[in-house]
């Protein structure tokens, strides 16, 4: 069935029609500087096609959540674990429900991880559920960067791989990518090259104008026209749009974003008796009681690589001979030194809520200071040690067969959740009360009790834990594979370890 949707008007007042069926087979790339009308274009496309095709929107700014009220899209909070997002993505494809993955509030690195997990969940769905889906990714240059930035290499590879799968291999799985970017030069070329339809809006940088002209098959001297486009005007080309470049003015939309472009407003007037300086500089009662929230600075990726390379480097030939003695450490002594370096890292103020990558850099520095020989500990092994330490297990329990089984079971969950799983397993093996939500959240590195409860649900979905309530009240976590369970515990109790800090 051929379905055309009205995207707006072309010169002469005719409707600009977009063939949805052709779009599903050939994909779409939208480009334009901030304020050119990209989000408005995407909203028009989503509104006009909502009754014809299932839609999934990757929304880094939370602009498209307003589609839920009028068109029934389910809003998915991106602040979830890998298992949760993959499970939701799978069910989205099974039940053919349109949704918006809202990544608002997450930092760039976590946005990339959440988008990568969700897109991979859509991509890996069973063949029985390969129904057509329009997958719209706003700010695509963030999720498919042309070069590495200040995010970890692991997050960049995850996100870029998911975007590549969407645009290069998604068609056979029913996934039709619609990607929008402010800068073509910042978007990975292998992702952009897979689109056969283009809507190019206003842009000013020479490199972006040149790439836009190349994609549209125009001569370089014609690229200057992209500077003259008005807001909401785009040059369209592609089998779903037009066989020749065509100027399109995008039509009106029925919903709107929660944010809007800034408008000029007069400054408020102040009464003559008001001391403006005193009004601004004197704190209110609310200011005095509000907790100070400071966002940790992003960790530059190259730092980890440099530290690792320094740790791998052999001593210079001119170094004094006594420094070579440290290379003859016994393996058990080396393990003890690694454990000591890790304990020093975790003893620093605020270490509980610092990112693993930042702790890892600190650990590499301390390992070099202690001249621990051998290759640097890989990040995955560091996280494994970190999870064991955060569980609070004692030496006697750590030597038991049950704990060895718990360590094997922990490999079935993602690296970031192994500490939480081992915390619960340790409590069950020792017959302690089930840890409260606050303790679970601390081990994960968050203050959110809501997320802590979601971790338990995730473990249950994986068949690792059975959570139930005791007759007298209190939560119990049972481990069928370990043949043990925790004592009843109050989920709302305070975290003793955090209070001690």
TrEMBL record:
Pfam families: DUF87. This is DNA helicase HerA-like ATPase. It comes from the Bacteria. Residues 8-71 form the Helicase HerA central domain.
